[in-house]
Amino acid sequence: MVRRGYRNGVKVRTLTGPTGPLALTLPRATLAAPGRGQEWASTIVPRYQRRMREVNEAVVGTYLAGGNQRRIRGALQPLLKAAPLSKSAVSRVVATLKGGLEAWRTRSLDDLGVIYIYLDGFALRVRSGGKVVSTPVLGVVGILPDGRKHLLALELCGGESFAAWKGCLDDLVARGLRAPLLCIIDGNAGLRRAVGEIWPRTAVQRCCVHKLRNIERKAPKHALADIRDDFHRIVYAASGEAARTAFATFERTWAKRCPGVVMSLREGGDELLTFFTFPKSQWKTLRTTNVIEQLHEEFRRRVKTQGSLPSEDAALVLLFSLVASGQIKLRRIDGWRKIATVLTQHTGVAA
Fold first, then answer.
1. What predicted TM-score, i.e. pTM, was given to this entire model?
2. 318 Cβ partners below 8 Å, 6+ apart?
3. Mean pLDDT of the chain
4. Which pLDDT belongs to residue 47?
5. What's the sign of the alpha-carbon dihedral 106, 155, 157, 93?
6. Measured between alpha carbons, how far is 47 from 13 in angstroms, rounded to an integer?
7. Is 222 helix (H, G, I), strand (E, B) or coil?
8. Concatenated DSSP letters of 106-154
9. What are φ and ψ of residue 170, in 5° steps?
10. Which of 34, 65, 249, 301 has the smallest C-beta neighbourhood within 10 Å, fewest atoms?
11. β-strands 116-128, 36-39: how paired?
12. What is the pLDDT of residue 350?
């Protein structure tokens, strides 16, 4: 009978689980192999494993909820009991999130069939080159045929320029994203130009909230309330025809008294009224970039506990993981049941 290996005593390993540290006695053995022996390894307790999966998940969950290394150790003390949890161990556990980010950033988008796309940027405080700087993040959220929101892109860049936005959209197209029916954007000129070059036949809706803010900055204080009311008569009109009538009335009323206000309104033009061509149940969702603004607000709320993020990589990993883990939930848009009607009416419009 050929000998297949031999026992070589035991070794004691400490594994941290949901009830604290647990001492395990594992057998040691050498398996026979041609020319040399091979040490036996347990498939239940892999080599170098010091914590059970549940503990690592608790570390990640606490991190995503706003904890740093010190707070994580404090929050998990009832779970860890006497088990050690070093700063480097926390960093290694959190670093496992990076693999999910890389897979998400390179995945194919061929099968998504995005109907609407929201594009907007926001700033995060990130440590870069030894200094804490405000770094723009380009965010893209798509609406799927069933009304669900889908995070398409998060990209840190030097600014919200045409080149930055075009590079972001070029990457999405290269991974298979087809032209949407509608893009909802703010008033950034570089973004508008990039959308026009990448998807020339896609309809564009300018965010009414951003436009109102721009108008208010040009309005004198004594007329601010009246100007705001007249603008609301445009964007909250009962129909597209009524909105155009209110638009013309706004121009006549304020052209001489506040020419800067009227110039700002005209700059938005018909793209402020695009949403009227879609189902009324979707108007509230389509006339502003609030879908992505709410996502940004959740990001800001989360990173506020840290002041600044340690690196650009750490910022992207955190932002993506908050969505991927479900800590930030993306619900369906209002009026999503009408998307099938929209697809029927707009077949062949975007290409």
1. 0.79
2. 64, 302, 303, 309
3. 83
4. 65
5. negative
6. 10
7. helix
8. H---TT----EEEEEEEEEEEEETTEEEEEEEEEEEEE-TTS-EEEEEE
9. -60, -40
10. 34
11. unpaired
12. 40
- CB-based contacts of 223, cutoff 8 Å, min separation 6: 254, 257, 258
Helices (H), the chain: 53-64, 69-75, 77-80, 87-95, 97-106, 162-174, 189-198, 208-218, 224-235, 240-254, 259-268, 283-286, 290-303, 312-324, 339-345
H-type alpha helices, 23-124? 53-64, 69-75, 77-80, 87-95, 97-106
CA 275 centroid distance within chain? 24
Structure tokens at 147: 């009304």
Q: How many CB atoms neighbour CB 129 within 10 A?
A: 6
Tally of CB atoms within 10 A around 87: 12
Mean pLDDT to the nearest integer, 180-199: 96
Number of residues that make up the chain: 351
Structure tokens at 300: 């800001």
Q: What is the pLDDT of residue 88?
A: 66
Secondary structure class of 179 (helix, strand, coil): coil
CA nearest to 75, candidates 86, 87, 63, 83: 63
- Report the C-alpha gap between 219 and 237 in whole angstroms: 22
Q: DSSP state, 332?
A: P
